[in-house]
Amino acid sequence: MQTDPPARNFILFSVGHGLSSIGSWAQKTGVGWLTWELTHSVAWVGTIAMADLIAALWVAPLAGAVADRSNPYRLFCLTQALTLLLALVLCAATATGAITIHGLLLFAVAESTLQGFNQPVRMLINGLLAPRERLSQAIAANSIAVAVARSVGPAAAGLAMYFGPVALVFALNALSFLAILGVIVHLRRWLDRPPLARGAALAGDVVEGFRYVLRTPEIAAVIFLALAFSLLARPFSELFPAFAGEVFGGGPEILSMLMSAQGLGALLGALLMLRGRDSQALARSVLVTGLGLAASLLAFTATPSLQVALPAMVAAGLFHVICNIAMQSLCQLQSAPALRGRVVALYGLIFRTGPAVGAFLITQAAHWAALSALVAGCALAYGALLIATLPATRRAGLHAAARVEE
Fold it and tell me: Alpha-carbon distance 317 to 31, whole Å?
């Protein structure tokens, strides 16, 4: 009988994933700059950025079913190896001058597709490496790694492009994959297992995943809250450029301050979640931090004073990360093992695309109302939904606790 993995394994996985993510964020920065060099077109920069969203919309439902039907070790290695190969191809095409903007768009769609298939199995690996009662700690450790990577990656890309060509960034990204692949090979004994789901048809498995969420009230409640969170509360960081210019009357320096404040809060929130929490505490965290996020956004939008806005943004960053970790943990803890990949894939799709959609809708409505008023209204609506779903969220915590005890 296989023993439970040591607690250090999810820390090791987070370190490997963090190192690989530094390369990924560096490459994202390099692709953005290469797009500008090739076209000097803002429209093309936006088009390349949208490739990630477009790929996510069609990949995520399939990716969850594929994760449930696959050996997690083999699927993770396959998607990472193919993404590494793609980075090498981009590096070679860029270094030789063969890259075109249409080729770069094709690359962006292909890379986003592979990442889409990798995301649910990566989320499942946290559950395989951590005991159920420590799942939130594993997700928090991964969140810290990603938060650090989001800061270090673009800075590393800037240094690489200062001292060499943009192709160097893509080469460094390919090299960074060796860290996570080495860690996964080391952890193989806990990840190399047969799939739990064996559906007759992939399309049927996709449909069954949606049906499972809809007929399981506790999971449906958390997914609904994740949707409300992503559309109403989470888009604040996508709107930072508009706040920096329109509300605070500044430029890049104000934008940098807002992003740094949010990043500091996010890091503090992830560090706080390294302390273990049971399922009922996770459900309480969703409600308390969700209301805290709504209150922070109301404070942020109440005044054009940075003395108020920056502390409010630190609080918002802290609350939003804790809320996300708690919701993601509840989704995994409540799900049947054979359907867990499809549940976390749906959660990942919402969390990945919801903020972009929410930010787009808010900016469109800004033709008729002030930006601060719109964000404040969304925060109030989110808080009201949290209070309305209080009983369902409490049941979600009790249901998850019962599963842990099984």
Answer: 27
Encode pLDDT of 342-383 as tens digits: 998 899 889 888 887 888 888 888 888 888 999 999 999 999
* Residue 3 DSSP class: P
Of 18, 14, 276, nearest to 129 (Cα)? 14
Instruction: Decide: 130 and 138 in contact? Cβ < 8 Å.
Output: yes
The pLDDT score that the predictor gives to residue 33 is 86
Sign of the four-CA dihedral 206, 208, 209, 215: positive
Q: What is the pLDDT of residues 127-179, one digit of tens each?
A: 888 877 788 888 888 888 887 887 788 888 888 888 889 999 999 999 999 99
Q: What amino acid is encoded at 384 in this protein?
A: A
Contact indicator for 342, 65 with CB cutoff of 8 Å: yes
- Residue 150: Cβ within 10 Å count: 17
pLDDT for residue 4 is more than 60: no
Which residues, including other chains, have CB under 8 Å from residue 372's CB and lie 6 or more apart?
243, 247, 301, 302
Which sign does the torsion angle of CA 154, 157, 158, 159 carry? positive
Contact 322, 269 (CB under 8 A): yes
The sign one gets for the Cα dihedral 290, 296, 300, 306 is negative
Assign residue 97 a region: left if phi > 0, alpha if psi is -120 to 50, beta otherwise?
left
Nearest partner of 279 among 333, 325, 321, 324, judged by Cα? 333
- The answer for residues whose C-beta is within 8 angstroms of residue 93's C-beta and 6 or more apart is 99, 103
Cα–Cα dist 131/395, whole Å: 22
Give CA separation, 347 vs 64, 177, 213, 214, 224, in Å.
Answer: 10, 25, 11, 13, 10
**Residue range 234-262, pLDDT digits in tens:** 888 778 878 888 888 877 678 778 878 88
The answer to whether 237 and 359 are in contact (CB under 8 A) is: no
Report the SS3 class of residue 4: coil
